[in-house]
Amino acid sequence: MGDISVVRTGGSSVDHSADLRGITTDTKPTAANGYDVPHGSTWLNMDDGSAYMYNKNNDTWYEI
After folding, report:
1. How far is CA 47 from the centre of its chain?
2. pLDDT by residue for the chain (64 residues), tens digit each?
3. Selection from 2, 14, 22 nearest residue 39 by Cα
4. CB within 8 A of 12, min separation 6: which ones?
5. Of 52, 33, 30, 34, whose CA–CA distance to 43 is shortest?
6. Cβ contacts of residue 6 below 8 Å, gap of 6+?
7. Among 43, 51, 52, 58, which is most buried by a count of CB atoms within 10 Å?
8. pLDDT of residue 10
């Protein structure tokens, strides 16, 4: 697994999502693999441009 870059965005009391980046071979962080990912966070695969949004309710990344 490669390194995960975490870039914190928002910061207001309303927006606590995170902007995450990696490559397609990286494992996206989830509660199941030990990460506390905020609901609505995004993941960008830097090698192919695909993007995902995280649903904390079911611990799933959805392509957007």
Report:
1. 15
2. 566 655 555 555 555 899 999 999 999 999 999 999 999 999 999 999 999 999 999 999 999 9
3. 14
4. none
5. 52
6. 18, 19, 20
7. 43
8. 54
- Residue with tokens 């957007």, as numbered in its chain: 64
Q: Which amino acid is at 28?
A: K
- d(CA 53, CA 31) in angstroms, rounded, equals 14
What confidence score (pLDDT) does residue 16 get?
82
Q: Contact 17/9 with Cβ under 8 angstroms?
A: yes
- Number of neighbouring beta carbons within 10 Å of residue 43: 22
In this prediction, residue 18 carries a pLDDT of: 94
